[in-house]
């Protein structure tokens, strides 16, 4: 991985010089230690894919992670889909490569944008993202924080159809509803039906419209000034290439004497990993090889913090309304990690209630007797 | 009168001749009745044809490009070139543009009816209504002319003869909007469904998709053109069966030419090859063109006139127990 190499080059080489030895403390090895620990622990990453059906989302996911997550999927026909609402389906797969474990969760959103009336069709998706934030919020505020599971969505790949002339109303509304909750990476789907000229025009048009509508898509972080020129150049190219025009494939074809992932047409062969055919490689590199960690960071530091701040604000304002000043500090929702203790508390509560009732009854009886 | 009717309808010389011979007298010598075909041809060449074609489908499916490719001229209201400055309209609009094109001495007044805004909104409920209304309005116009006391020699025909419905090549199945539209309109106009931008799919994917789409059309009871119930005879039926089996045609349109194997062809040039529009191995454009223009153009007009229009007319006559002019703005009063 690129990050590895970069860290390694920074470790000062121990020389035989004794004066250097005295000045060398050794904490420069920290990145290595962090690295070793995380490798042991493993990584997790949650990726959401959204877009109308038939955009090649499943195929792209399979191509990205070299898996076959959708083996047993049954495609519904139009009649069957009439009353279908947008669903949220999770697929989890454990991938291991060179000793590094990744727990990858793909969140699929079948039904999005497929109906005749697609008003608010993104609501189940925003609800899902909020729910994951809420869950994490509760866990974080809870008593047992050792094994918090991070189900927050780190990245959302949004598939824009290549058939249009830019963003459609549903694309704009979807991205605006989600851009402050999740890292959105817009993609041009099924890019093999466009000529290079058409792709360029479409990308320009989409970038223009994203600016125009104030949509905040995921921004690549700026390069550090001490990075080498090659890296800076690659980074610049990456940024100018968005939104990525991608193609996916589940099949292997023979092209130029090699077996590659591709699509076989009567007029030629499209190679998924050929940079002059599409931006798949750029997407994969960006998503997995260089920016996976940054995506997680932005989710934690920006989107989640926004949610948390909003949540706390709502709670304090609610408390102020209720006028209950039992404690000067806003009350955080206590998580209930232990179902048993909760049951016990409930039982005791009820017992207390009963005893209180009995007491009031007795008091009443005594009062009547007196009279 | 018999002769005028046959000029507008299908001329069946055989039937004419046999009716003469069964009438009693056998033909002695050559009369020359068969030259009527030549006379008809001359006349129609002079008067020319009207053909009205409507394109429906959400934006970006290549509707304008396809029509330009079909008629080998810039007939759509979009100029050549890809840049589209118009925004998606908030409601479905109906925009007509007419051109006169000529080939082999035959003049055709081609009217293209575009429907921008269809299926592009977030909420597309009832987006087919403006289209349905337009089609019925054309029938109404024709009907009014027909029932006038003093009729024009040649009633201007603005009725939609053919509606090309563009299906998005998702590779999965039809979308709900596709079914809603075709269900509602297949009884008032000839609908020809086509799979747009077919260069998105490999040959295999295309076949599978077509089969699924055909099955869905069948299950929803959508009768697209050529409709089975209107096949005149066995010959028609067998021809049309072949066409029905191959529909919906998966097409690619282009108005640019490239050099392939020493020939200049219409196509789309990508980094991995040139998609040739008229190559039957690449897509089914040639089949669509032959079907639409070279063999069934006249039939489309006839089915529109003899069936769809008649259905509308019968419905209108049955309303109010007779035909009265509907709109009060019309000064002509006529009672049947």
UniProtKB/TrEMBL annotation, chain A:
Cell compartment(s), UniProt: Cytoplasm
- A Pfam family annotated for this chain is Septin
Domain of life where this protein originates: Eukaryota
Among the entry's GO cellular component annotations, what is one? cytoplasm
The record, for InterPro entries, names: G_SEPTIN_dom (IPR030379), P-loop_NTPase (IPR027417), Septin (IPR016491)
- Chain segments annotated as coiled-coil in the UniProt record: none
Which GO BP terms sit in this record? cell division
Q: Name one GO molecular function term.
A: GTP binding
Q: Where along the sequence does the record put site: Important for dimerization?
A: 163
- The Septin-type G domain is annotated at 41-314
- What keyword terms does UniProt attach to this protein? Cell cycle, Cell division, Cytoplasm, GTP-binding, Nucleotide-binding
Q: Which family does it belong to?
A: Belongs to the TRAFAC class TrmE-Era-EngA-EngB-Septin-like GTPase superfamily. Septin GTPase family.
Name it: Septin
Organism from which the protein derives = Sphaeramia orbicularis (orbiculate cardinalfish)
UniProtKB/TrEMBL annotation, chain B:
Q: Which InterPro entries match?
A: G_SEPTIN_dom, P-loop_NTPase, Septin, Septin3
GO molecular function list: GTP binding
What Gene Ontology cellular-component terms does the record carry? cytoplasm
Output the superkingdom of the source species. Eukaryota
> Could you tell me which SUPFAM superfamilies the record lists for this protein?
P-loop containing nucleoside triphosphate hydrolases
Give residue ranges for domain Septin-type G: 47-319
Q: Which UniProt keywords apply?
A: Cytoplasm, GTP-binding, Nucleotide-binding
Q: Where in the cell is it found?
A: Cytoplasm
PANTHER family reported for this sequence? SEPTIN
| Similarity field | Belongs to the TRAFAC class TrmE-Era-EngA-EngB-Septin-like GTPase superfamily. Septin GTPase family.
Supply the name of the protein. Neuronal-specific septin-3
Q: Which organism is it from?
A: Sphaeramia orbicularis (orbiculate cardinalfish)
This chain is encoded by the gene named sept3
């Amino acid at each position: 991985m690129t990050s590895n190499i970069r860290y390694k080059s920074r470790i000062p080489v121990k020389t035989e010089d004794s004066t250097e030895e005295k000045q060398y403390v050794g904490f420069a090895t920290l990145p290595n230690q962090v690295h070793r620990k995380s490798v042991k622990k493993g990584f997790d990453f949650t990726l959401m894919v959204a877009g109308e059906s038939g955009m090649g989302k499943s195929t792209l996911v399979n191509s990205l992670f070299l898996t076959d997550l959708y083996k047993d999927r049954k495609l519904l026909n139009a009649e069957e889909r009439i009353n279908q609402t947008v669903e949220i389906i999770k697929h989890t797969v454990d991938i291991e490569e060179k000793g590094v474990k990744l727990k990858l969760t793909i969140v699929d959103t079948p039904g999005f944008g497929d109906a005749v009336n697609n008003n608010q069709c993104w609501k189940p998706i925003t609800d899902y993202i909020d729910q994951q934030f809420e869950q994490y919020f509760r866990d974080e505020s809870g008593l047992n924080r050792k094994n918090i599971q991070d189900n927050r969505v780190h990245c959302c790949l949004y598939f824009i159809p290549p058939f249009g002339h830019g963003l459609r109303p549903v694309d704009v509304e979807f991205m605006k509803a989600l851009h402050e909750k999740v890292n959105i990476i817009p993609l041009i789907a099924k890019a093999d039906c466009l000529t290079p000229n058409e792709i360029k025009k479409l990308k320009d048009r989409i970038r223009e419209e994203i600016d125009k509508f104030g949509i905040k898509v995921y921004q690549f972080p700026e390069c550090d000034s001490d990075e080498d020129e090659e890296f800076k150049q690659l980074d610049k190219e990456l940024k100018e290439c968005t939104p990525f025009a991608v193609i996916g494939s589940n099949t292997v074809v023979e092209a130029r004497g090699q077996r590659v992932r591709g699509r076989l047409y009567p007029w030629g062969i499209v190679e998924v990993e050929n940079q002059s055919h599409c931006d798949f490689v750029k997407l994969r590199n960006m998503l997995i090889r260089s920016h996976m960690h940054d995506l997680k960071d932005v989710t934690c530091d920006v989107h989640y913090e926004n949610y948390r701040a909003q949540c706390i604000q709502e709670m304090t304002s609610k408390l102020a309304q209720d006028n209950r000043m039992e404690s000067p500090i806003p009350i955080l929702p206590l998580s209930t990690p232990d179902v048993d203790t909760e049951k016990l508390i409930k039982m005791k509560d009820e017992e207390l209630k009963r005893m209180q009732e009995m007491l009031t009854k007795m008091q009443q009886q005594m009062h009547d007797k007196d009279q | 009168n018999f002769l005028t009717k046959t000029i507008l309808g299908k001329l069946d010389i055989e039937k004419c001749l046999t009716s003469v011979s069964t009438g009693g007298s056998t033909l002695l010598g050559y009369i020359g009745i068969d030259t009527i075909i030549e006379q008809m041809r001359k006349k129609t060449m002079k008067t020319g044809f009207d053909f009205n074609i409507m394109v429906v489908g959400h934006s970006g499916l290549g509707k304008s490009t396809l029509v330009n490719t079909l008629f080998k001229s810039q007939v759509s209201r979009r100029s050549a070139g890809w840049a589209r400055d118009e925004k998606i309209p908030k409601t479905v609009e109906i925009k007509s543009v007419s051109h006169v094109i000529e080939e082999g001495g035959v003049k055709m007044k081609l009217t293209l009816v575009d429907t921008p805004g269809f299926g592009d909104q977030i909420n597309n409920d009832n987006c087919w209504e403006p289209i349905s209304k337009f089609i019925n309005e054309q029938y109404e116009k024709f009907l009014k002319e027909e029932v006038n006391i003093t009729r024009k020699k040649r009633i201007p025909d603005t009725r939609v003869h053919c509606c090309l419905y563009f299906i998005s090549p998702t590779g999965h199945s039809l979308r709900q909007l596709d079914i809603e539209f075709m269900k509602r309109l297949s009884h008032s106009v000839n609908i020809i469904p086509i799979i747009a931008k077919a260069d998105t799919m490999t040959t295999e994917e295309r076949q599978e998709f077509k089969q699924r789409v055909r099955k869905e059309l069948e299950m929803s009871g959508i009768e697209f053109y050529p409709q089975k119930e209107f096949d005149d005879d066995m010959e028609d039926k067998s021809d049309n069966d072949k066409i029905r089996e191959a529909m919906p045609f998966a097409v690619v349109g282009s108005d640019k030419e490239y050099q392939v194997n020493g020939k200049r062809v219409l196509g789309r040039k990508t980094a991995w090859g040139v998609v040739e529009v008229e190559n039957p191995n690449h897509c089914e454009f040639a089949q669509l063109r032959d079907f639409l223009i070279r063999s069934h153009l006249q039939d489309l007009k006839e089915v529109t006139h003899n069936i769809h229009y008649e259905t509308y007319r019968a419905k209108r006559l049955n309303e109010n127990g007779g035909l009265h002019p509907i709109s009060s703005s019309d000064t002509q009063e006529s009672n049947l």
